[in-house]
Amino acid sequence: MKGRITIRSANQHDTEKMLEIYAPYIIDSTVSFETEVPLLEEFDQRVIRYQEKLPWLICEINDDLAGYAYATDHRQRKAYKVTKELSVYVHKDYRKLGIGTGLYIALIEILKAQGVSNVLAGITLPNTESVRFHESMGFKPVGVYHNVGYKFGKYHDTGWWELSLGVRNNNPTEILGINEILNSKSWGDAVQAGISKIRIKE
Q1: Which domains are delineated in the chain?
Q2: Which of 78, 25, 89, 20 is nearest to 53 (CA)?
Q3: CA–CA separation, 114 and 54 (whole Å)
Q4: Which distant-in-sequence residues (6+ apart) come within 8 Å of 201 by Cβ?
Q5: Which residues 6+ apart lie within 8 Å of 48 measured at CB?
Q6: Torsion 74-143-160-173 (CA) sign
Q7: What are 126-176's pLDDT values in tens digits?
Q8: Model's pTM, two decimal places?
């Protein structure tokens, strides 16, 4: 497959296509613990709110939205500010092409530039594909929360994986905001690093 690859910040014009990608993960699987597909307006506000501080990236192939990835706070208490959670969703027609890898690499490099020290991924178990993906990115398993979710008439475990980003500031202040690094060299380098991992020739 040939195509023009773009990784960029999501905007309100992307919301409908992102929700189309996300909806099957809610309706047909336990990948997401959401039980109802959010309204478009609600999802739109979610994207805006998350991007106030952290990256939400999309990957386009020939202007077709192939996947997206984003970071969120791990918990609300301030001491957790150095640790974020990651999520990635890829359209079914674009799997096995490195889209998830490319998005994660770009996302992680941006988070490093912001001063984030650690990233986490929560995976509903069993999910061999997601476990293999995260471990291929260097994530290490750290434990399992048993029976913490209830969906489709069953209880589900969630496993947790962590990745240290090597950022260890002895006196971390505030994590840099997105607007402080958007369009910077760090941002551009992160995006190019992600694009280089996608297996589609220009």
Answers
A1: 5-195 (3.40.630.30)
A2: 78
A3: 9
A4: 1, 2, 3
A5: 12
A6: positive
A7: 999 999 999 999 999 999 999 999 999 999 999 999 999 976 666 666 788
A8: 0.93
